[in-house]
Amino acid sequence: MNAPWEPIPSPYVEFSREAWRQLRANTPLTLTQSDVDELRGLRDPIGIDEVEDVYLPLTRLLNLFFTGDSGLRDALSTFLNESVRPTPFVIGVAGSVAVGKSTVARLLQALLARWPEHPRVELVTTDNFLYPNAELLRRGLMTRKGFPESYDRRALLRFISRIKAGAKEQSIPVYSHLEYDILKGERQTVRTPDILIFEGINVLQVPPTGSLSVSDYFDFSIYVDAKVEHIREWYVERFLALRRTRFSDPRSYFHAQARAQSDPEAVAFAQSIWRETNERNLTENILPTRARATLVLHKGPDHAVQRIRLRRI
Ligand SMILES: Nc1ncnc2c1ncn2[C@@H]1O[C@H](COP(=O)(O)OP(=O)(O)O)[C@@H](O)[C@H]1O
Ligand SMILES: CC(C)(COP(=O)(O)O)[C@@H](O)C(=O)NCCC(=O)O
Questions:
Q1: Any idea which ligand is nearest the CA of 198?
Q2: In contact, 90 and 215? CB cutoff 8 Å
Q3: Where is the Phosphoribulokinase/uridine kinase domain (predicted)?
Q4: What's the pLDDT tens digit per position in 241-276?
Q5: CB-CB contact of 152 with 129 (8 Å)
Q6: 194, 208, 283, 311: which sits with the fewest CB atoms below 10 Å from its CB?
């Protein structure tokens, strides 16, 4: 019998950025710096070198997994003695608020769509499935936005299971960061793609016992990781940048507040939203899901990916 202190082998293999970039093989660079500038989030300094070092090897790996999927489908077809049709390959992208998930997701969408095997790549963010503010207020959840209970989990599950079941198209709600709410009367149409990227803080959440969760439908998942103290800084810096830009739009939820607050008051306000909502959610709900990801991208203090961990078992 093994002694209780014997270590459990890690399911991951870890790469430095230098080692990972060698795995690009001959994957061509299909984006320019100005494409990257359009795709990156506010205050995300990502450059073309990072696309080459980190994201080209990653798209090569994803393409290999995508192609390998047809082998499993053939096995199932043989077993069932009927043809099993392809379903969209679903990639989950998880991680804290302000860690830069949306840049990763948009870059992957642009890069993967340039491969001939899977030209149709859709990107859906889970904020579209948040309850509207009126419902969050009714449930006493307005300061818990982003926590698992602030999402319509049945709608999330219905969406992803219909995608996998081959529904031609679906209409889903639309969340606006500007208005900080679900938009009344607006819908996004999602046509069943070759690849679906499903991005959101809680996509790797485990379901309550006995039920399914969206991650049960993932073919691959990515956790975007960084130290909590770095993400906190990024959140506050981004809040201040938004205050100088998007919050000046009268439609912005934070418009009146941004005008009334002094600079130090704005910093204290951003720090309090971070502390009371986002950091709590990170430590209680998001970070514990990291161990479930197929791949972990670890960012350093300058936002750049430094280390990559890939599940090999
Ligand atoms: N209050 C806000 N107003 C306008 N845009 C915002 C606001 N908060 C976040 N965003 C934008 O929404 C996107 C998603 O942000 P977030 O959920 O924190 O994820 P991440 O930073 O990991 O991509 C980012 O592009 C960010 O710039
Ligand atoms: C909308 C979010 C919950 C992110 O949602 P996601 O797309 O990751 O499901 C987050 O950006 C947010 O607004 N959090 C609430 C606290 C805050 O204002 O930062």
A1: 2
A2: no
A3: 90-230
A4: 999 999 999 999 999 998 999 999 999 999 999 999
A5: yes
A6: 208
Q: What tokens does 259 get?
A: 């005008």
- Report the pLDDT value the prediction gives residue 22, as an integer from 0 to 100: 97
Q: What is the mean pLDDT of residues 178-207?
A: 96
Is residue 51 within 8 Å of 108, Cβ to Cβ? no
Predicted TM-score (pTM) of this structure: 0.96
Cβ within 8 Å of residue 71, ≥6 positions away: none
Bridge partners of 173?
A: 187
Residues in contact with ligand 1 by the CB-under-6-Å rule are 41-42, 95, 97-102, 177-178, 242, 246
Angle (CA) 229 207 120, round 5° = 80
Q: Select from 39, 102, 129, 178 the residue to mutate for testing ligand 1; criterion: most ligand atoms less than 8 Å from CB.
A: 102
Q: What is the pLDDT of residues 9-36, one digit of tens each?
A: 899 999 999 999 999 999 999 999 999 9
Residue 87 lies in a domain: yes
Instruction: Say which residues have a Cβ less than 8 Å from residue 308's Cβ, sequence separation at least 6.
Output: 14, 15, 17, 20, 54, 295, 296, 297, 298
Whether residue 227 is contained in a domain is answered as yes
Domain that holds residue 140: 12-311
Q: What is the SS3 assignment for 17?
A: helix
Residue 192, domain member (yes or no): yes
Quote the tokens at residue 22: 């060698």
Q: What are phi and psi of 304, to 5 degrees?
A: -80, 140
- In this structure, the residue with its CA closest to atom 2 of ligand 2 is 146
Query: HSE (CB half, 13 Å, CA atoms) of 260?
Result: 5
Place of tokens 């219909």: 162
Q: How many domains does the chain have?
A: 1
7 in a structural domain: no
Tell me the pLDDT tens digit for each residue of 116-137.
998 999 999 999 999 999 999 9
